[in-house]
Write a structure and sequence with these properties.
The protein is an alpha/beta fold. It is built from 20 helices and nine strands.
Amino acid sequence: MIGTNEKTIKSTTENWELSNVKKFLDSVFIDDSFQSPARWDGAKSRSYLDSLFKGIAPSKFIFADVVECRKNSLSTEDINYYSNWLSEGANYLNLDSNNRFTTLRLLFTNQLELRAGTYCDNLGNKFTIKREQRWADLSESVKDFILTRTITLEVYTKATRSQLSDIFIAVNSGCELNAAEKRNAIISPISKICRELGENYYKNFSTRSWILSIFSEQDYNRRKIDSQFAGMAFFHSFGFKKNISDGILYSEYETGSELNSKSTCFKNDVDEFFNTWVAPNEDIFKEGMKLSKQTVFDLFVFYHRHRNQIKDVNMFLKKFVEINTLLKKNPEADHKVGDKKMTYAALLRGRETPKCQKRYELLANGLVKSKVMTDENVTAVYKYKTKINTVSA
């Protein structure tokens, strides 16, 4: 049981046969604000089912009972939270078992080929699954055997919305969550905005942006696109004056941080960036460059700093693409960051502030030489006079 200074959390431990799981396939939901979409591939799902059928998959499923939690809620905020889920058709919220439950959903909806194997029930009866069989291909006796397999659940019947995040973080404290997944569980404006920007410009088919195609579906599921927007938000607030790290970024998700105080302004700027710079000019990127995640960040840096001075955005972007390409082609490690000399490709492997600033300096120098920006445009933020042989005017 997880302690709290707010109100006592209550939960029960339950054993469900898969026949019971089958009844709730469409009424177990996840809250994207702390749980990630399922990210197992078919091999991992098959491996889990193989263990489950053998009776050696003991890890608990962690659910919140929406009806009971609403009944036990005291604040208007929590009552509304659970009421909204009820209106969506949710009986349970899945706090920490989404890959496993999604696997069971795929099994029972005939979307997953099973691993070949022979299994025994408690009486020693044997049941064989052939290679590549799906649920619909199984004999009735094998189906009956599978439906008697059991899972263990910890079902929370009393918990505030905030405590659900605490539960998620606590049960994952020993798991390999990445930094972005941990930040996503924090209830804050910037967490919500980064998540929504990822949904809008990557996941939503009608509004998605081609420049985010560098990310994979797995990246999206692991919150790496959220992390991209978090890095952009950090620059939006601090420029290059403050070095970024996972620890500092995590603290900036907490209540009262500068990222949170400027989150609405950041969202508005990102929307304008995609709507006025990116969307009307996507053909330039498709035809002219191999994208990288840091290049998307770099473009936002120029938008944020120089959008009011750049009159011909189309021409600016063409030169931006051209200069990026030339810099990336140069194999020489002639860009100094601290005590190290790096290639431009190495500068693109990371979002540490010194690397980001060096890329900005190199790109700005080339853009000034290309006459799509003037020296006066960049004087206020930096002065970089070193000649770069890889960039021509």
